[in-house]
């Protein structure tokens, strides 16, 4: 091969590599999005529309959809590091089961929209299963001024207490106002039940972190550092005297490092 042909061969290889890199970048950006779009809270009829004016997540109080190029996404898509699946109608297939039996009425709790800085993880701190904890929050939300958006328990059931995105009363004023999602983990003495609860707990936190563009980090940084936080972190950096959920998790062998890894990567 002559020198000229060798140079031409190198140029062809370099050009091919550039083209492949561009193609890969386009494909990756189409299937792995880093989005900071607000969540759009809509009615059922609005979610059932076929075209939309804005991109981002849409939520009708029960179902979620993601809109790109004015249409709901179907199939699979990774958004903010979290993998999502959507049915043929563009409705998300949730990786957990939601029960709305104990959801607060509009005149219970707060309807104020929270800033999207933190997702706060708790455990109930008592020997209460999911149904017991959810029912108690429903009965006493206003009188005790204490509840979370979700309680997870009873073998992986997610009890929605108040719509995500709204302020809940679980960790003090500053934390509450900056947390669109707070999650309580109910207690059990059964290892199999705990494993199901824990998987739903992590799946719920990851799912909603992706939707509110909150980093999949655990207890990193100080006041104002966005991410998923334990109630212990809130005590250390903002206000309070709680240390959950680590003591309860440790009872079943789940360390902070494992929780951090599971939140980052999923199962």
From TrEMBL:
Matches recorded under Pfam families: Amidase_2
> A Gene Ontology MF term for this entry?
N-acetylmuramoyl-L-alanine amidase activity
Q: Which domain of life is it from?
A: Bacteria
Say yes or no: keyword Membrane present.
yes
Any Gene Ontology biological process: peptidoglycan catabolic process
Entry's transmembrane regions: 12-33
Keywords, A to Z? Membrane, Transmembrane, Transmembrane helix
Note the SMART domains from the entry.
Answer: Ami_2
**SUPFAM superfamilies the record matches:** N-acetylmuramoyl-L-alanine amidase-like
* Matches recorded under InterPro entries: Amidase/PGRP_sf, Amidase_domain
Q: Which residues form the N-acetylmuramoyl-L-alanine amidase domain?
A: 105-246
Mind telling me what this protein is named?
N-acetylmuramoyl-L-alanine amidase
Organism equals Limosilactobacillus frumenti DSM 13145
């Amino acid at each position: 091969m002559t020198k000229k042909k060798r140079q031409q061969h190198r140029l062809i290889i370099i050009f091919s590599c550039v083209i492949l890199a561009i193609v890969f970048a386009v494909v990756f950006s189409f299937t792995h999005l880093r989005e900071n779009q607000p969540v759009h809270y809509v009615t059922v009829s609005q979610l059932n529309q076929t075209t939309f004016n804005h991109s981002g997540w849409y939520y009708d109080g029960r179902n979620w959809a993601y809109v790109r190029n004015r249409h709901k996404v179907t199939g699979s898509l990774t958004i903010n590091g979290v993998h999502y699946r959507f049915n043929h109608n563009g409705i998300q297939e949730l990786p957990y089961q939601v029960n709305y039996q104990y959801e607060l009425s509009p005149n219970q709790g707060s309807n104020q929209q929270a800033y999207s800085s933190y997702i706060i993880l708790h455990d109930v701190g008592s020997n209460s299963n999911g149904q017991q904890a959810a029912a108690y929050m429903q009965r006493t939300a206003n009188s005790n001024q204490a509840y979370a958006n979700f309680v997870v328990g009873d073998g992986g059931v997610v009890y929605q207490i108040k719509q995500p995105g709204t302020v809940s009363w679980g960790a003090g004023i500053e934390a509450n106002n900056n947390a669109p999602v707070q999650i309580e983990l109910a207690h059990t003495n059964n290892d199999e039940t705990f494993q199901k609860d824990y998987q739903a707990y992590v799946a719920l936190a990851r799912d909603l972190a992706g939707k509110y563009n909150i980093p999949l980090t655990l207890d990193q940084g100080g006041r104002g550092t966005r991410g998923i936080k334990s109630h212990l972190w809130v005590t250390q950096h903002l206000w309070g005297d709680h240390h959950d959920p680590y003591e309860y998790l440790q009872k079943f062998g789940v360390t902070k490092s494992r929780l951090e890894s599971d939140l980052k990567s999923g199962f």
